[in-house]
Amino acid sequence: MAILVCEARVRTGLPSHAIATLCERFARDDAQATWSERSGRADFSFGSGILEATEDSIMLRAEAADEASLARVKFLLAWRFEELAKAEKPDIIWTGDGCDRTELLNFREMRVSRIADITPHLRRITLAGQDLARFDSRNFHVKLLIPPVGVEPAWPVMGRNGMPIWPEGERRPTVRTYTVRRVDALAGELDIDFVMHEDAGPGSAFALRAETGDVVGIMGPGGRGLADADWYCFVGDETAFPAIARMLESMPATAKGVALVEVSDASEEQTVQHPPGISLRFLHRNGAEPGSTTLLQDAVRVVEWPSDGSVFAWAGVEFEAFRAIRSYWRKEMNLDRSSHLAVAYWRRGFSEGDFKKAPAED
Length: 362
Known about the structure:
Elements: E1 4-11, H1 18-28, E2 32-35, E3 39-44, E4 47-53, E5 57-64, H2 67-84, E6 95-96, E7 107-119, E8 122-128, E9 141-146, E10 157-158, E11 164-165, E12 174-184, E13 189-195, H3 202-209, E14 215-222, E15 231-236, H4 241-250, E16 257-263, E17 278-284, H5 295-301, E18 311-318, H6 319-332, E19 340-346, H7 352-355
Parallel strand pairs: 15-16, 15-18, 16-17, 18-19
Antiparallel strand pairs: 1-5, 1-6, 2-3, 3-4, 4-5, 7-8, 7-14, 8-13, 9-12, 9-14, 10-11, 12-13
């Protein structure tokens, strides 16, 4: 099988341990990473990144079987390198396969095709587009690009560093993270569920005003997928329920565990197909505001864990609940990083753009 390759030699004054630091960060991106003092390698499910250090530079090498996967590897190498060498403002210029292209291979322009209210505060919007097979994966988070109201959108393009170049001015879309609830690649459509807030942010506002034919963009997919285990613990609120539902629906009938979902009241509960060995429990806030209770933290602490076999715990919650649950799993349950994933989906009192500046996943 032919392998596509891109390389970029980046001049840098980073210290000698930079290779190790970069590889540790690639491991957070679900890579199998190995390294020595002067070299490193990160093997993702879709391709590989290789790093070689010289006295004044680091060579980045991306390898993959197809252009879309190659673009993902380039993005991750460039993103993590620029993150580490932010003060230097490194000049990353890729050469090799596919580097003459400017379109983002993980971008799709979509149109609203159906709108349905699933619960009093949950609206499902079906988007139609072309070539959606990549979105039918175990990595189910996407970036939704919402155009300004009444303005023709301008979409990002690929930069020479392998990362998106975003348009400036009034045509720049607003970006928010969502979970793909359902994908039908043959029909060319996918569903996204929106929690409808009284103080509607950009995503909820879009869902409120959406009409058939409206245009949006999506980029992705991303995020870590579901790990294999003998027993599972899922924890989330309304914002995470689409992810929990997709995971439950994809699991074998023999799967065992518990799923804890916080909602406002019984009217927000949803019926979801799930293995009989997984107990799905809804916890009601009963008038309390989202993010103001400890329902999920308290429920997690009384879960009965199995005495043997492998486990995997997953949480998608508000920031304060994320910190409490992650701390409990790590410090009291002694779960290693491969056995759990805790994500802050949102933070009370903050927009997504503001709270994402703080660590939200680890």
